[in-house]
Design a protein that fits this description.
Chains: A mainly alpha (96), B alpha+beta (480), C alpha/beta (482)
Structural class of chain A: mainly alpha
Radius of gyration of chain C: 21 Å
Number of strands of chain A: 2
Strand order of the largest sheet of chain A: 1-2
Helix content of chain A: 25-40%
Strand content of chain C: 15-25%
Distance between the termini of chain A: 39 Å
Largest interface: A-C, 59 and 80 residues
Largest sheet of chain A: 2 strands, antiparallel
Helix content of chain C: 25-40%
Largest sheet of chain C: 11 strands, mixed
Oligomer: heterotrimer
Distance between the termini of chain C: 13 Å
Strand content of chain A: 5-15%
Shape of chain C: globular
Chain lengths: 96, 480, 482
C-alpha cells in the first residue's frame, strides 16, 4: 500500500472535488487530512483481507418500482434557480 | 505501410420505458425545457433513486436478443464527475458487475456473414441537454441553458469486442444491433433523436501483426452515414500519423458531420478520474432464474434469423427479406399476414405488403397508423387466388378496405358495373348459353331467373348489380 | 406544559383541558424566550404550526379520534425537508434553498397530526459532533452554556432538553443522535438502517444515515418511532420488515436480558466518572435479573478508521450535486468550472471541505483498494463481530460517549474530535438499532448509556431502556435556568 502521507496530492484532489482552499489555509487543511490518512493505516493490521467487502449495512432484496409515470408540480425551479432563463438553468460558458 | 483496422463500438440505446430509470417522472421528449423533471431529476437534496422494473426487464430482453449471459447479480455504482447536464454530480451506472456479459451479433457484409462479439451490456442513466447560446457549439458560446428532460432516461450501453475491421462492418454492426433492439421492443432506435448513439473506438496496426495499436474514441456519430464517414476520416488521420513515423495519442475525439472530420475532445491526461464506487442508495440487483426466464421468453426470433427464414422458406429475395424486417410495424403486419395466409403464397403476400400496402401505409405515416387488418388483406388475396375476383379488382378493392368497407360487401356489389352495355353483353352471353332456362322463364317460372343471375354474377366477378341483372333477364326473356 | 410526556399531553388534549394551539404557542414562546442564551432553531415555523394546531383543535373539539401525536409540537433537524420551507443543513450553500417536497417522515408526522414548529440547528451537512460546524451559530448545552450540545443533531437534543418541544427528529450517521442525546441528558434512538425512510433527509453518508427521534423518555421515543417507520416506495433501502407496536410492548415486563459489555468500550479512553455511571447502570440491570458479561469485540477499535473512509467517500459524491447550477448558492465567474468551484468553496465550511477532500482522495485512481475497499472489508469484520455477539446476547451496553459534553472550542483538532465517536460508530457500520438514555451526571453534565440490539430488534432496546427509566430518575432531571 502506498503511504498516504507521502502520496496525497492535495491540489489534484481539490481539482477533482471542485474545491479551492485559500493559500493561507492550505497547509492546515492538508495536515489535518494527512493525520486522518495516517490514522486509518491502522486498518492494515486487521485480519480482513479474506473478507468480502460490505457496501451496505445489510444485503436485503432491492425494491423495484413499476413503470408508472407520476407528474410533479410546484417544483420551485425558477424560485430556487440562481439564474433561470427561458424555462432553463443558465450557466456561464463551459470553456474559457 | 498497410494497416489492419481494429474497431470496437459502444452503443448507447435509450430504453422504451414510460418513466425514467430511477424516478417515476415521465421519460421521453417534451416541447418545453425541464418539463419532465421531478425532485430526483433535478438532483434536489434528499432524493433517492428507485429502480424501474421495466428497465431491468428491457435490459434482460436486450441481453437475450444479443445472446448474452444474463447475470443473476449486478451492481449499480456512482460514476463521479461535474458537468451541468449531470444533476447529481454523479451518474448511476453499472461498473464491474453489469447485467449482461458475453454475447454476439451476426452481421452481413456483402455476401458473407460475420460474428461480432459483445463484451457486456450495462444499465445507466442518460444526462440532460445543454443548449449553447451565441454559438453553434461550446466554442465561442457565452453561456448555456440546462434542460433536464432527458436526464435520467434509462440507457443500456452495449460494448462490442474489437472484432470490427472496416467502416462497412461498423455500419452493418450498428444497423443490425439497432434492428435487433427495435424488434425486441426495447428501444425506438431513432438515431437522429439520439435514441441510439454510437461511440467508435478505432486503432490501426501493421498488417498481419497481433498487438493492438493505440486507439481513439470517436463520439457524436449519429447516423449510419456518419459512422462510415467518421471511421474513414479517422483511419486516414491515423494512417498519416503512423506513416510519417508519429504515434497516435489515446484520446477522445468529436466527429463533425459538416466538416466530416474529427477533433480532440479530451486527451488522455484530461481523462476523468471517475472514482467509481458501489451506489449506497441501491442494493445489488438480484434476479431469480424464474424472473430471467420469464423476461427472456418474451424475446421473439431476431430479425436476422427472420430474414433467413424469409429467403429460405418463403423464397423471397434477400433485398425483399431485408425490407420486410427493416421496419418493425411493417414486419409485424407481414407476420400477421403469414399467420392468416390460408394457402396464399409468401411471395404474393410480400409483393402486396411491399407494394400497394406499403404505399398506403406511407400515406398515413407508417404501418402503425394503417387501418387495415392483415386478416382482411388476406381474405382479399384468397378471393383473388380462388378466382372470385381479378387482380385488377383486388387492387381496386384495397383502398376501399382501408377506408373501412367490409370485404364481403365489396365482393357482393361494391365494384358494380355501371356501364349498361357491358352488363347487357354479359347477360346476353349467359342467356345464349342457357336457352332451356330462358324458356322456363318465358313460361312464367320467374324463379329460374335466379340461376341465370348467379351465372352473370360469376362472369362479372360479383360486380353486377343484382336488381339490374334480374330486370334485364326478365325483360330480355319476355321480349325474345 | 413544558416537560410533559406525550401520554400527559395526549390525555389533556383529548379531554380538552388543553388546546393544541396553546401548546404550540407555549412551545414557540419558549423558543423565543431562550433564543438569547441557547438558540436551537434555524427556522421557526410559527404561522404554519399555529394554522395546523387550529385544524387539530377543531377536530378534537368535534371529538374525532386522532393519532397519538395529534396536536403535539415537534422539532425537526434542518437536514430534513419540509415542503415550501427553507432547508439549510446548517450550510451557507443551502441558505437560499426552499424544498418543494416533504421528506417521508414529515408526511408521516403530518398524517399523525404532529405539529412541526422548528427547523433545528446542526453541524453543516451533519458533519460534526458539536454544532460548532453550523454556518449559523453554535447551540450551547442547556446544562452548561459554555459546553456544546453535541452533534450533529445538537439543536434537536437541546430543544428537547430545554423544554422547547417534547419530541424532535434528528439523523444519525456515526452517533449524531446518540451523542447529543447523551450530552443534553435526553433519550435518543437510532433505529435499524432501513427502518425509517431516508427520503427527504439530505444525505451525508447514504449507507450509514438513519433518521430517529429524541424525547424525554423511552416511551415517547416509541410513540415517534411508530409514527415515522415503515417501508417507503421512495427509498429503495427502506425495509419491508414488519412494524412492531412498540408503545404496547413497553407495558409488558421484558424477559431477563442477556447483555454484553464490550471491554473495548469501557477501557482507559473512557472518563472515570462516565465509567462509574455505566457500571451503576449495570448493577441496576443485574438487580432486575439481567445477565451482564464483559466481552471482547476487537473489531470495534477499527470502527473509527473505517468510518472516516466510508463516510467521507460517500459524502464526497452526495455533496457533488451542490454545484450552483440549479439551486443554492452561486458565486459569479466567467466560466462554468470557476463558477462551480467558487460556489462550493464559498458555500461549504472547512469541515465539510475536509471530508469531501478526504473522500475524494480515498476513491481516486490508484487508492481505491488501499482505502475504500479495505474499509469495506473492515465493515464486514465489524458486522461479523456483532453477529457473533448477538448469537449469545440480546443487547450490547456501553457508555454513549467517552466523556461528558466538552467546552466550546475545546476540541480544535479534527482527529481528536473523531476519536470521541468510538462507541457510537459501530452501530452505524452494522446498521443496528441503538439507544442512548441518561444514566447519571458528571460535573453537572449528563452521562449517556448506550444499548445496541440486533437488526430490527428495536423492541429490546426500548424495553430495556424503559425498564431502566422506571427504576431511575436521571431522565426526569431538568437543567437549571430553562
Amino acid at each position: 500500500m502506498k503511504k498516504a502521507t507521502e502520496s496525497f496530492d492535495f491540489d489534484k484532489t481539490c481539482t477533482l472535488a471542485h474545491l479551492e482552499v485559500p493559500e493561507d489555509q492550505k497547509e492546515a487543511m492538508k495536515k489535518s487530512i494527512d493525520d486522518v490518512l495516517g490514522y486509518v493505516e491502522t486498518l492494515n493490521k486487521l485480519p480482513i483481507n479474506h473478507l468480502a467487502p460490505s457496501s451496505h449495512a445489510a444485503e436485503n432484496e432491492l425494491y423495484l418500482r413499476e413503470d408508472k409515470p407520476v407528474k410533479h408540480h410546484g417544483l420551485l425551479m425558477d424560485e430556487n434557480a440562481p439564474d433561470w432563463q427561458e424555462g432553463a438553468f443558465w450557466v456561464p460558458q463551459l470553456k474559457a | 505501410m498497410e494497416y489492419d483496422v481494429v474497431i470496437g463500438i459502444e452503443v448507447h440505446a435509450q430504453l422504451n420505458t414510460k418513466t425514467k430509470l430511477f424516478t417515476a417522472c415521465p421519460s421521453g421528449v417534451s416541447e418545453n425545457a425541464n418539463e419532465h423533471t421531478c425532485p430526483l431529476t433535478l438532483g434536489l437534496p434528499g432524493t433517492l433513486p428507485v429502480l424501474n422494473k421495466k428497465a431491468v426487464e428491457y435490459a434482460v430482453m436486450a441481453g437475450t436478443a444479443l445472446h448474452c449471459k444474463i447475470q443473476k447479480k449486478s451492481v449499480f455504482s456512482r460514476k463521479n464527475y461535474f458537468y451541468p447536464d449531470l444533476p447529481k454530480g454523479y451518474q448511476i451506472s453499472q461498473f464491474d458487475l453489469p447485467i449482461c456479459l458475453g454475447g454476439y451479433v451476426d452481421i452481413e457484409v456483402g455476401d458473407s456473414t460475420k460474428r461480432i462479439g459483445i463484451t457486456r451490456i450495462h444499465m445507466e442513466e442518460d444526462a440532460g441537454k445543454l443548449v449553447h447560446q451565441g454559438a453553434e457549439a461550446i466554442e465561442g458560446s457565452s453561456g448555456s441553458l440546462v434542460d433536464l428532460n432527458r436526464a435520467g432516461t434509462p440507457l443500456i450501453e452495449i460494448v462490442s469486442e474489437p472484432d470490427i475491421r472496416s467502416a462497412e462492418e461498423a455500419k452493418a454492426y450498428v444497423e443490425t444491433l439497432r434492428l435487433i433492439l427495435v424488434h425486441a421492443g426495447v428501444c425506438n432506435g431513432n438515431m437522429q433523436q439520439g435514441n441510439l448513439r454510437a461511440d467508435i473506438n478505432v486503432s490501426l496496426r501493421p498488417k498481419g501483426t497481433e498487438a493492438f495499436g493505440t486507439r481513439t474514441e470517436i463520439k457524436n456519430v449519429n447516423s449510419f452515414r456518419a459512422i462510415v464517414r467518421a471511421v474513414y476520416s479517422e483511419i486516414e488521420r491515423q494512417t498519416e500519423i503512423l506513416d510519417s513515423g508519429g504515434s497516435v495519442d489515446q484520446e477522445t475525439r468529436n466527429y463533425d458531420d459538416i466538416t466530416q472530420s474529427t477533433t480532440v475532445l479530451r486527451s488522455k491526461e484530461e481523462a476523468h478520474d471517475y472514482r467509481y464506487f458501489p451506489e449506497p442508495d441501491l442494493l445489488p440487483l438480484v434476479l431469480s432464474d424464474e424472473q430471467i426466464n420469464r423476461w427472456a421468453g418474451q424475446v421473439q426470433e431476431n430479425p436476422f434469423e427472420k430474414k433467413k427464414r424469409y429467403v429460405k422458406i418463403l423464397k423471397l429475395s434477400k433485398q425483399d427479406a431485408y425490407t420486410l424486417v427493416a421496419d418493425v410495424a411493417l414486419n409485424q403486419f407481414f407476420e400477421q399476414c403469414l399467420r392468416h395466409a390460408n394457402g396464399v403464397k409468401g411471395d404474393t403476400i410480400s409483393k402486396w405488403v411491399l407494394g400497394d400496402v406499403s404505399k398506403a401505409a406511407n400515406d398515413v405515416q407508417g404501418f402503425e397508423q394503417l387501418q387495415l387488418k392483415p386478416a382482411e388483406l388476406m381474405a382479399l388475396l384468397q378471393a383473388q387466388e380462388k378466382g372470385d375476383i381479378s387482380g385488377k379488382m383486388a387492387k381496386e378493392f384495397l383502398p376501399q378496405l382501408i377506408e373501412g368497407k367490409a370485404l364481403a360487401e365489396l365482393l357482393k356489389g361494391g365494384g358494380q358495373i355501371n356501364d349498361s352495355s357491358e352488363l347487357e353483353s354479359i347477360v346476353q352471353e349467359v342467356m345464349s348459353e342457357n336457352p332451356d332456362v330462358v324458356e322456363k322463364i318465358k313460361n312464367g317460372k320467374h324463379n329460374s331467373a335466379n340461376f341465370l343471375m348467379g351465372q352473370v354474377m360469376k362472369k362479372s366477378q360479383g360486380r353486377a348489380k343484382p336488381d339490374a341483372v334480374r330486370e334485364l333477364i326478365l325483360k330480355k326473356a319476355n321480349r325474345g | 406544559m413544558q416537560f410533559s410526556s406525550v401520554d400527559e399531553l395526549q390525555k389533556k388534549l383529548r379531554n380538552r383541558e388543553l388546546k393544541s394551539t396553546d401548546l404550540v404557542r407555549e412551545s414557540l414562546a419558549t423558543i423565543t424566550k431562550q433564543e438569547a442564551h441557547f438558540k436551537t432553531s434555524i427556522t421557526v415555523l410559527k404561522d404554519q404550526a399555529l394554522e395546523q394546531a387550529q385544524v387539530i383543535d377543531t377536530a378534537l373539539d368535534k371529538g374525532d379520534d386522532l393519532p397519538a401525536l395529534a396536536g403535539i409540537p415537534i422539532g425537526i433537524k434542518d437536514n430534513i425537508c419540509i415542503k415550501n420551507t427553507q432547508t439549510t443543513c446548517g450550510s451557507r450553500f443551502l441558505e437560499p434553498y426552499t424544498s418543494p417536497y416533504n421528506a417521508t417522515v414529515i408526511t408521516k408526522l403530518q398524517k399523525n397530526k404532529g405539529v412541526c414548529v422548528s427547523k433545528l440547528n446542526l453541524d453543516e451537512f451533519a458533519m460534526g459532533s458539536s454544532t460548532e460546524n453550523s454556518a449559523f451559530f453554535t447551540t450551547p448545552n442547556p446544562w452548561n452554556t459554555e459546553c456544546v450540545s453535541g452533534g450533529s443533531s445538537g439543536g434537536s437534543a437541546a430543544a428537547v432538553a430545554a423544554g422547547q418541544v417534547p419530541i424532535s427528529l434528528g439523523s444519525d450517521t456515526g452517533g449524531s443522535i446518540r451523542q447529543p442525546a447523551a450530552f443534553c441528558g435526553v433519550s435518543g434512538l437510532k433505529p435499524t438502517y432501513g427502518r425509517v425512510s431516508r427520503y427527504g433527509l439530505v444525505a451525508f453518508a447514504s449507507s450509514l444515515d438513519q433518521i430517529g427521534p429524541f424525547a424525554r423518555s423511552v416511551k415517547d421515543l416509541a410513540y415517534v418511532l411508530e409514527a415515522i417507520c415503515g417501508h417507503d416506495v421512495n427509498d429503495a433501502t427502506s425495509s419491508q420488515a414488519p412494524i412492531q407496536e412498540w408503545v404496547n410492548s413497553l407495558a409488558t415486563p421484558p424477559k431477563k436480558f442477556k447483555i454484553a459489555l464490550p471491554k473495548q468500550l469501557i477501557g482507559e479512553t473512557i472518563d472515570e466518572d462516565v465509567k462509574h455511571c455505566v457500571l451503576q447502570a449495570v448493577d441496576t440491570f443485574k438487580n432486575q435479573g439481567a445477565v451482564i458479561e464483559e466481552v471482547d469485540m476487537p473489531s470495534l477499535e477499527a470502527s473509527i478508521a473505517t468510518y472516516y473512509i466510508i463516510a467521507p467517500a460517500e459524502a464526497s459524491a452526495n455533496l457533488a450535486r451542490f454545484d450552483g447550477v440549479r439551486y443554492g448558492r452561486r458565486e459569479h465567474a466567467d466560466t462554468l468550472k470557476d463558477m462551480m468551484i467558487k460556489s462550493r468553496s464559498e458555500g461549504f465550511g472547512p469541515e465539510v471541505q475536509r471530508r469531501i477532500l478526504l473522500g475524494t482522495f480515498v476513491l481516486s485512481a490508484g487508492y481505491y483498494d488501499a482505502y475504500y475497499l479495505k474499509a469495506q472489508k473492515a465493515r464486514t469484520y465489524i458486522k461479523n463481530d456483532f453477529s457473533r455477539i448477538f448469537a449469545d446476547y440480546d443487547l450490547i451496553m456501553s457508555p454513549t460517549t467517552p466523556s461528558v459534553a466538552f467546552k466550546k472550542g475545546e476540541k480544535s483538532n479534527p482527529l481528536d474530535m473523531y476519536r470521541c465517536d468510538l462507541a457510537t460508530i459501530p452501530a452505524n457500520m452494522a446498521g443496528l438499532p441503538a439507544l442512548s438514555i441518561p444514566c447519571g451526571f458528571s460535573k453537572g453534565l449528563p452521562v449517556g448509556l448506550q444499548l445496541i440490539a440486533k437488526a430490527f430488534d428495536e423492541t429490546s432496546v426500548l424495553q430495556a431502556g424503559h425498564l431502566y427509566q422506571q427504576l431511575t430518575h436521571f431522565h426526569k432531571e431538568i437543567p437549571n435556568g430553562v
